[in-house]
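User: tokens in, sequence out, please.
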């Protein structure tokens, strides 16, 4: 049985979410403030399989709690917020959020996202046994979540790291924008769109390409998508 920590201060929303989550068989702890969430987390971070965080709270932001969690844990995180502005979405994903749902939302949509995210998390944990990915002079140490270019560390946001890993796990395969967004964030394009993805691609190229203006690792395939190009490259 999966256990969820819900950080939310809206009592009416808490009641609805509690009923739906418990009916679906999830165990649930509820925090109304950042202080309460900190207390739950300090009592045993390893017991949670998923966090659902409201962004706007009486004593701060769910973004700050996410940032703290990501210092020690890769537990899946869903943000709940009244804003669907692209800059807020990118900020949340960069801090390590895995999904983003704007209020108001349908409970069925949230439950679908939760189920998909938990499945993806289980698959991710199973794949950690690979230990390391290497190609094109780039190395990903999967257990540590670190990236290197020619043995020099690369500073990546959580979103950039996931995108790079997806490319490296699918060498020379053309991935459409829709496939990438679906695999990374389980989104249908309502919140993360082609423009958001283009921002990630541009920033990732700036960190891993020798000449970002003429990329050779992450290449664009016109009208089709992107691919991790290893043809002719040293492993």
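Assistant: Sequence out:
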């Amino acid at each position: 049985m999966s256990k969820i920590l819900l950080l939310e201060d809206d009592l009416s929303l808490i009641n609805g979410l509690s009923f739906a989550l418990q009916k679906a068989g999830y165990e649930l702890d509820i925090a109304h403030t950042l202080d309460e969430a900190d207390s739950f987390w300090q009592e045993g971070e390893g017991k949670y399989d998923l966090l659902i965080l409201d962004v706007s709270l009486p004593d701060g932001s769910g973004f700050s709690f996410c940032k703290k969690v990501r210092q020690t844990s890769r537990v899946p995180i869903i943000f709940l917020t009244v804003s669907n502005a692209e800059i807020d979405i990118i900020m949340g994903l960069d801090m390590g959020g895995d999904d983003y749902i704007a209020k108001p939302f349908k409970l069925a949509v949230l439950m679908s996202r939760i189920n998909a995210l938990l499945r993806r998390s289980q698959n991710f944990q199973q794949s950690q046994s690979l230990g390391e990915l290497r190609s094109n002079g780039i190395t990903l140490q999967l257990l540590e979540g670190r990236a290197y270019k020619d043995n020099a560390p690369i500073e990546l946001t959580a979103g950039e790291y996931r995108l790079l890993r997806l490319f490296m796990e699918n060498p020379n395969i053309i991935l459409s924008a829709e496939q990438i967004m679906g695999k990374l964030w389980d989104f249908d394009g309502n919140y993360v769109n082609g423009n958001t993805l283009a921002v990630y691609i541009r920033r990732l190229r700036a960190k891993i390409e020798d000449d970002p203006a003429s990329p050779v690792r992450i290449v664009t395939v016109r009208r089709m998508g992107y691919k991790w190009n290893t043809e002719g490259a040293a492993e």
